[in-house]
């Protein structure tokens, strides 16, 4: 009797078919990680019904953004995101948040000379400043791709060290050095300031030095000190950044050049705007007597193209130091020889720091007759440079103090007067009247001038309006206190109005009686 083969159970058939599906999926998708994650959910999306393997009709539709459906009850966060429950979750309240791969607790490493940059759902690595990838790419994924190497800034075009600067490459950076005769500019560490040096024999009578956009011409006899047979030195230094500090300084003209607008004060021009056209240069020499040179020195300034308008004038100026530690631009000892659109030539009889200024104001010519009729006025007791504030506030505070004393005396007199009145008048009424009259006295005696002291800061405009309005009402307060609130004046006003009414009534009575007599006489005549 032959053996009968046992019939397989439905569960065994399901397992066998599931294995067949897995083998087909693995053979079609060589990527083992992705395939494993896909097949892992087959048991949840498949079922046995009537001995046949069937797929469920649908999966979870409530999965949040940045996640995928696993089965009807489970969702999985996308790569680079995670929920509070982990990668997979079953709660509808969960959300998938970005993983900060660059955080302190992260295992991600970009390697040396590199920084990690976190993105939405991922990250990337970049080389730090001064380094770059060997492939010239900008980003990479992990430490194994790190090829960050030092950038040689000295080979970049255009040159990073300007004006003949010497570049030295360092690890991740560079330095600029200047050759002899040049030095680094304070405002730009990559710029070398030019200093022109020239050695000449005694046979040469003229000296020409050139610096940054400036040329200086002088005679060698000016440089040599009297009785000195040794070497002589003359120098010219140009500092481009100095113009920003001195551009807004005041300008003082020589008396013979002070043809200023009518009404302007002579001397230092503080209300006239000026523009610095050139670099500020400083000249020096071994001759210690630099204030009275035997022959003038010529300076040729190069500047940007500019044509002065009808209300503009170009000046050759120098920086004049004052004893108080300050200074201003001055034209004394300097004159303009010629000027063009791009250059100006000046001659000076002393040495200092020089520049070219263009003043923005009209320069009318002044006749001698006008000077005699309108001499300059320079004395004013309200001088801003000589204690202007206290020259004004001193008298104001004195007047205010005297008026305040009168107010206190008035309050004392009113209090004594009210206390002697009949006891039928209430104390509250007396107090109110006393307070009102005392307040009115403040306006009458001019105590509101204290508002003038408060005209400072942001509230200056408000205080100015209050000062003007309240002081303009001073006459009204005098009428209010000494006329309307005075009992004697009110009684006199009452008598005056009663007299007017009485006179009017008598006039009307006289008119009526006259009319009656006229009517009676007419009737008698008719009869």
UniProtKB/TrEMBL annotation:
Keyword Transmembrane among UniProt keywords: yes
Compartments (UniProt record): Cell membrane
Q: Which Pfam families match?
A: 7tm_2 (PF00002), EGF_CA (PF07645), GPS (PF01825)
Task: Write down what this protein is called.
Answer: Adhesion G protein-coupled receptor E2-like
Q: How does it sit in the membrane?
A: Multi-pass membrane protein
User: Which ranges carry the G-protein coupled receptors family 2 profile domain?
Assistant: 380-486
GO molecular function terms listed in the Swiss-Prot or TrEMBL record: calcium ion binding; G protein-coupled receptor activity
Q: Which PANTHER family match?
A: ADHESION G PROTEIN-COUPLED RECEPTOR E2, ADHESION G-PROTEIN COUPLED RECEPTOR
- What domain of life? Eukaryota
Reply yes or no: does the keyword Cell division apply: no
């Amino acid at each position: 009797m032959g053996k009968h083969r046992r019939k397989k159970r439905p569960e065994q058939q399901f397992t066998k078919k599931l294995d067949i599906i897995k083998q087909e999926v693995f053979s079609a998708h060589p990527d083992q990680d992705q395939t494993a994650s896909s097949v892992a959910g087959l048991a949840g999306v498949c079922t046995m019904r009537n001995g046949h393997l069937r797929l469920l009709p649908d999966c979870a539709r409530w999965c949040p953004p940045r996640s995928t459906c696993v089965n009807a009850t489970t969702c999985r966060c996308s790569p680079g995101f995670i929920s509070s429950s982990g990668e997979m979750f079953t709660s509808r309240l969960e959300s998938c948040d970005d993983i900060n791969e660059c955080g302190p607790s992260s295992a991600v490493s970009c390697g040396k000379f590199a920084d990690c940059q976190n993105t939405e759902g991922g990250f990337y690595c970049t080389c730090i400043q001064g380094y770059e990838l060997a492939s010239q790419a900008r980003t990479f994924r992990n430490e194994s791709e790190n090829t960050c190497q030092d950038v040689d800034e000295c080979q970049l075009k255009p040159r990073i060290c300007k004006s003949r600067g010497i570049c030295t490459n360092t690890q991740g950076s560079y330095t600029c050095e200047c050759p002899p005769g040049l030095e680094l500019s304070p405002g730009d560490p990559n710029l070398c300031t030019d200093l022109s040096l020239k050695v000449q024999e005694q046979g040469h009578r003229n000296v020409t030095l050139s610096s940054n956009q400036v040329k200086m011409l002088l005679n060698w006899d000016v440089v040599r000190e009297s009785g000195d047979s040794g070497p002589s030195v003359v120098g010219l230094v140009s500092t481009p950044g100095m113009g920003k500090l001195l551009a807004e300084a005041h300008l003082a003209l020589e008396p013979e050049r002070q043809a200023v607008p009518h009404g302007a004060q002579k001397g230092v021009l503080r209300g006239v705007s000026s523009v610095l056209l050139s670099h500020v240069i400083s000249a020096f020499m071994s001759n210690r007597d630099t204030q009275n040179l035997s022959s003038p020195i010529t300076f040729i300034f190069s500047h940007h193209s500019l044509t002065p308008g009808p209300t503009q004038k170009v000046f050759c100026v120098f920086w004049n130091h004052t004893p108080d530690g300050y200074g201003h631009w001055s034209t004394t000892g300097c004159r303009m020889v010629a000027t063009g659109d791009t250059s100006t030539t000046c001659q000076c009889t002393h040495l200092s720091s020089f520049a070219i200024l263009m003043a923005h104001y009209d320069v009318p010519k002044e006749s001698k007759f006008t000077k005699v009729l309108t001499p300059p006025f320079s004395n004013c007791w309200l001088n801003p440079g000589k204690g202007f504030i206290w020259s004004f506030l001193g008298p104001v505070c004195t007047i205010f103090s005297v008026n305040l004393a009168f107010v206190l005396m008035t309050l004392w007199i009113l209090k004594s007067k009210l206390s002697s009145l009949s006891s039928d008048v209430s104390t509250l009424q007396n107090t109110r009247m006393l307070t009102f009259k005392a307040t009115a006295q403040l306006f009458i005696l001019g105590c509101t001038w204290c508002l003038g002291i408060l005209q400072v800061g942001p509230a200056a405009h408000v205080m100015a309006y209050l000062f003007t309005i309240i002081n303009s009402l001073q006459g009204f307060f005098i009428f209010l206190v000494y006329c309307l609130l005075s009992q004697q004046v009110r009684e006199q006003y009452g008598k005056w109005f009663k007299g007017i009414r009485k006179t009017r009534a008598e006039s009307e009575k006289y008119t009526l009686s006259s009319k009656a007599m006229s009517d009676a006489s007419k009737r008698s005549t008719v009869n």
